[in-house]
Amino acid sequence: MSAYHPLDVTEAIAIARGLDGVFQPDAQLTCREIGDGNLNLVFHIADPAAGRSIILKQALPYAKVVGESWPLTLDRARIESEALRLEGKLAPGLVPAVYFYDQELALTGMEDLSDHIIMRQGLMNGSRYPLFAGHISTFLAQTLFFTSDLGHNQQEKKLLSRSFTNPELCKITEDLIFDDPYRDAESNSFEETIRDEALALWSDGELHLEVAILREKFLTHAQALLHGDLHTGSIFITPESTKVIDPEFAYFGPMGFDIGAVLGNLLLNYASREGRDGSDAEREDYRAYLLDTVTDVWAQFEAKFLALWNEHGVDRLANAAPGYKEHYMQRVLQDTIGFAGCKMVRRIVGLAHVADIDKLADAAARERAQRLALRIGKSLIKLNRGAVSINQLVDTVLAASAAVKA
Amino acid sequence: MSAYHPLDVTEAIAIARGLDGVFQPDAQLTCREIGDGNLNLVFHIADPAAGRSIILKQALPYAKVVGESWPLTLDRARIESEALRLEGKLAPGLVPAVYFYDQELALTGMEDLSDHIIMRQGLMNGSRYPLFAGHISTFLAQTLFFTSDLGHNQQEKKLLSRSFTNPELCKITEDLIFDDPYRDAESNSFEETIRDEALALWSDGELHLEVAILREKFLTHAQALLHGDLHTGSIFITPESTKVIDPEFAYFGPMGFDIGAVLGNLLLNYASREGRDGSDAEREDYRAYLLDTVTDVWAQFEAKFLALWNEHGVDRLANAAPGYKEHYMQRVLQDTIGFAGCKMVRRIVGLAHVADIDKLADAAARERAQRLALRIGKSLIKLNRGAVSINQLVDTVLAASAAVKA
């Protein structure tokens, strides 16, 4: 194929038509560019008559977030396609199928998931996904266990880690999640109504110590191949199906960062219920659903991970040492809780927010939701190294909710 | 140059003669192969008349340890030469100068250090090196700080870490230090007189838990570029000069592994004093010198590392978070103590021993030294996560000595 340039609709159709066994030669193809234009072009190409469709996703050589733009490596498209393929092998059915990857064009052809919706939107709609905890815990257990030193040949893991070296995307996380929210950074974005909260974040030494320790783990703890950006906007969902997308931040890091991203984003929606319409009873019922999902994701993850370890553990000493499994899982839980908190705080005062809260129309309700999210996030960060049970996370959330109400 | 093959003396001379500015064109060169033949060829090439000399070191495509032989990547020569160059920049004068590296031949030309002796031999001779603690603490502080996320651009560090991916050499450590001594492995080697000690190692669950946690750190904690094999046989020394050699095990791992290697090998010599000639007073005096060196290495390392951090720290949050530096240094100390213990245990029951102890002629004295080394090693491993001061290491050593005497 030709040298890198952003594709147009005509080129995208030509590429799709050239793929073996996807479309009939004489098919009438439609094409829409459906990306948000901030990082990638996303072409949806369909043959409506035959009911067939495909996604072509092309990386752009820059990133735009909330109006800012900076150059960004095209290599992230390779990392994304390789991560999707590996995740697809380890967690079949839980990521879109990858049909091809073109290095030159930074272009991936993949399964069209238009029958799914983005989970963040689903939660904002008040939908429930009773199969989600089962699906995402399988995804987490399978991808994290089998890329770790517990479940992967330890020499091959080092080579795999080398191929997922991802400095530019990691830097975004290191800055936006683990630094800027804790100082008066230009990149920060928050409403003036909660400036007191921002000031409190910038001067909270106890919090800074915990975030520094979590930041160090993100920088140095090459535990398993992470998705790296596993919020509810990276999950396509229906009541029956869960598909994890967009692993362009993939790299070898601490397992709790992925698990915490899922839990933290469920809790952001929990906090957003301060500003949702409906009766108190409806709100509390949905919140109970979200909290049940949080504990269920952890409990199922832990059980599945341990089952994999018992059956497929490759590290003799790790398998045999008395108490090691318990010690390991407790540290993953602690990391999960700490990272969940970091993921919440950055979404309120940092550069990139979440629609769950930003889209609340009522200013007072939005402010309550922001304050609740920060209270939960900070409490989880401070809890992390002392945690021994997921129930402590639940207690922390309930206590923060009660305190905000009072 | 030609494709890879082991060089002979004639070829080595020809290569040395071809180097710019090393020897005169008409020099009468002598050449001796002085390697031990287990991993590398080492050619010492000299012009005695001019008083000039050079070392050519060539990796062999296999490793031999105590009669066993297995294939081993030639890439370790690249890693060694790159590590030496980087260490030479960060810690000038503390490693041999590298003149060239030939990838094809896995051949490095470097400074001749024939006026130094191997430190292990120096300690066995009872020599004292009052400048050593200052030198090695500078080497450790400079190389570890400036390759860590505290002192190195965090994105470039990821790329540097990628280029020091070293699975084959790491596997040797993972097996021989962090697995085999704790099970009835074929590779183990110990005298029948201490079979009771081996059996105790294999069934000590508390010890296995600590070793499993240290093993995990070695596998996953990409904290800084390590030398990776920093025992007293990897150090050339005179009373005035210290040169760290042979970093072919270099990779990004936990700092405490390098520091612990130094301390553990000083303590192996300490244990060997059970079987050395001389009066009790002489023995205790030399032991006091070794223990003073141990505490001095740590204390100077800590002070120099913190001074570098205060002046050159690149991580805003790590620099600013109250209590983080203390927390960081305490964890490095804990790792140091744990890894020092692992380094001692493996030298008594594992595949590769140390001359300090193996060369003791008197069987009863040798056995006492072995039991003392194991007692110290196990105690340090069990102490590691609870340690808050280097004095606890000293107390542990003294208590073990007293217990063996009793």
Automatic annotation (TrEMBL), chains A, B:
SUPFAM superfamilies hit by this protein: Protein kinase-like (PK-like)
Catalytic activity: 5-(methylsulfanyl)-D-ribose + ATP = 5-(methylsulfanyl)-alpha-D-ribose 1-phosphate + ADP + H(+)
Positions of substrate binding: D229, R346
Record-annotated membrane-spanning stretches: none
One GO MF term: S-methyl-5-thioribose kinase activity
Function: Catalyzes the phosphorylation of methylthioribose into methylthioribose-1-phosphate.
Matching HAMAP family: Salvage_MtnK
Family per record: Belongs to the methylthioribose kinase family.
Listed name of the protein: Methylthioribose kinase
Gene: mtnK
